[in-house]
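ugh ok fine here u go
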Amino acid sequence: MTCCTRRAVPPTVLALLALACGRGEHREAATTGAPDFRNPASGAMTARAPATFRARFETSKGAFVIEVHHEWAPHGADRFYNLVKSGYYNDTRFFRVITGFMAQFGIHGDPQVAAVWRDARIPDDPVRQHNTRGMVSFATAGPGTRTTQLFINYGDNSRLDGMGFSPFGRVVEGMDVVERFHAGYGEGAPRGRGPDQSRFQAEGNAYLKQGFPELDYVTRATIVAP
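structure:
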């Protein structure tokens, strides 16, 4: 997947990603037997998420927290909950960061894992919230194409609402951390000099580490109790 531009809507809607920020004291939610993210179809990876919950992301720049509301986008909230709970987002890169627009991530660093999730799509959710600053949505390349990629809105991107990008959560702590993610590579290839998503999918984090060493990344993501 790719993503959309800051002003003009491209012929093919490009993929977006988002996440939320946080600091402060949190208690990690008790978990037993984390689900295996290598098997998207397993029952453990399709569990229903709580009505509201928070996810803490520790990154190379600091920590941020996303607060999720199931009623905003049920399918998106469930997918996000299970991915975080399973550890899927650990060591994932913020591979597309555009100042004033958004920060995108969610392709797994292991090509074999990324491959099994490419077609693990979830149904679309009605857009009930706006893509404004701090809101988090799944990337999409058109109807019925959401999988694992997310983006965090840096500003008012409400124009994305009509394109089907349905926010499921918002950054409630650490938005300043999100805004410090390295944006020097800009737009992805071939339109920009940033990472090529096809190569990233095929070669994983090894490709990013060699060609884009300044990208920020998630060290650990967990479900936490407020």
